[in-house]
Every structure is written in C-alpha cells, then in structure tokens.
C-alpha cells in the first residue's frame, strides 16, 4: 500500500483501466466470477450470444429480457473506488473503463473513456433513430410508431466494432500515463486488454485485483479487494 501511495504521489499522469470488479461493490454483478453473469444458466444461449448484435436483430424480445434483467442497475451508486479514481483523475489523469454503468461519470470523473459505451446514452430506434430514455426501454423494446426495434444506448455488442473515437482516446490516455493502474478486470477481453501495448516503456504499472491476471509481472501487484485499497488512499 505504501508503495502504491508513493507511486500515485509521484505520478504526473495516472490512467486507470477498470473492469466489472470496480462496480461489484455498488451491487452490479461482474461477468466471469463464479457468481457472475456468464455463469448463469437461465437462458438457452450463452451470454456472449445473448449480448450480441445478431441476437438483438433475430430475437429482440429475448435480447431485451436478458438486457433489462441482467445489465440495468439505474439505482446503483458510485462506491469509494469510483470516488477516489474521480478525485485522482480529475487532478492528474484519466479513466478508461470497460463498464457500461456510467458510475465513473456519476462519481464526478471528467476524463472518462467508456470503451464499450454505456447503457444509458443514445437509446434509439433502429428504424427511424428516435431517442428514448432508459426508463422507456426497460419497459418496452418496440417503437410502436414504426414497429422498429429499440437498442440500448451506445453499448458495444458482440459482433460490433468499438467506436474508433473511444479507441483513439483510450490509446492517447495510455500513452500519456507515467502510471497505469489496472483495477477489477480479468483483462481477457480484446481490444481493451491490448491497450497496455501502447504504454510508455517508462510507465509504472500497478494491478489491483482479487485474483492474479496474466499481464506483465514486473509491476506492482496488489491481491486485495479494491474497496480496501482505495479506502486507504
């Protein structure tokens, strides 16, 4: 902990790379843990298919049911991790997140790249483009004026490309950092997991995760609950 504090203090620009483990303390389930979203067996298809562009178009009712009951947590509040990251990044850094829950933004963070988009912005009809708010979407997936399918926000589904602007900005923040802090992610999803390839050779790396992850072992690894870690900052 003391080494991490020293690194944060000395850093000129800190980039946080975050995943689902940052939001689990706020009551949002992760994906790949033993109790995560991808371990549930209620549906006939694997979650990767349930959250795919193909499923959205072929089985919009099933897609909607899965998304509303497994992905939306509008009452969730930022936890100490989000709050401390917002404080640090607003002072001298940025956050690049895989999460689609907007909790980093709710915590007040200003320099945030939502790499996979989010569930709450730009909810629209695929036929005419009309905008809806998430409260409407949680009740219905059909735009009854033209019978179009409504899709959930800017979220990147399986089978879709990442927004190039998000990739560009994320790479910029990684290149700029002299301290990279990876928190709450298995680092198995690409291209997000490939962002570290753009890090400066002089940048320091800190990994905070309950379980070991397969990335450069030369950095500082803290095997602990991120809530415990960020509560001490």
Automatic annotation (TrEMBL):
It comes from the Bacteria. Keywords: NAD, Transferase. GO terms for molecular function: histone deacetylase activity, NAD-dependent; NAD+ binding. InterPro entries: DHS-like_NAD/FAD-binding_dom (IPR029035), NAD-dep_sirtuin_deacylases (IPR050134), Sirtuin (IPR003000), Sirtuin_cat_small_dom_sf (IPR026591), Ssirtuin_cat_dom (IPR026590). SUPFAM superfamilies: DHS-like NAD/FAD-binding domain. Residues 1-233 form the Deacetylase sirtuin-type domain. Its EC number is 2.3.1.286. Gene3D superfamilies: SIR2/SIRT2 'Small Domain (3.30.1600.10), TPP-binding domain (3.40.50.1220). Pfam families: SIR2 (PF02146). This is protein acetyllysine N-acetyltransferase. It comes from Companilactobacillus allii. The lineage of its organism: Bacteria, Bacillati, Bacillota, Bacilli, Lactobacillales.
């Amino acid at each position: 902990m003391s080494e991490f504090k020293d690194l944060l203090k000395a850093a000129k620009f800190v980039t946080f790379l975050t995943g689902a483990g940052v939001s689990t303390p706020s009551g949002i389930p992760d994906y790949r843990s033993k109790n995560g979203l991808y371990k549930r067996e209620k549906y006939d298809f694997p979650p990767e298919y349930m959250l795919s562009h193909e499923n959205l178009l072929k089985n919009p009712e099933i897609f909607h049911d899965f998304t509303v009951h497994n992905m939306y947590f509008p009452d969730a509040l930022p936890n100490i991790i989000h709050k401390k990251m917002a404080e640090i990044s607003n002072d001298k850094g940025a956050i690049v997140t895989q999460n689609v829950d907007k909790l980093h933004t709710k915590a007040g963070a200003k320099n945030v790249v939502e790499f996979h988009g989010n569930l709450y912005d730009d909810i629209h009809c695929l036929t005419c483009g009309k905008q809806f708010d998430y409260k409407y979407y949680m009740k219905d997936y059909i735009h009854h004026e033209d019978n179009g399918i409504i899709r959930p926000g800017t979220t990147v589904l399986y089978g879709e490309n990442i927004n190039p602007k998000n990739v560009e900005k994320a790479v910029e923040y990684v290149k700029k950092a002299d301290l990279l802090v990876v928190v709450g992610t298995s680092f198995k999803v690409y291209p997000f997991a490939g962002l570290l390839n753009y890090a400066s050779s002089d940048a320091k790396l800190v990994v905070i995760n309950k379980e070991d992850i397969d990335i450069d072992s030369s950095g500082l690894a803290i095997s602990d609950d991120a809530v415990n870690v960020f509560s001490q900052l």
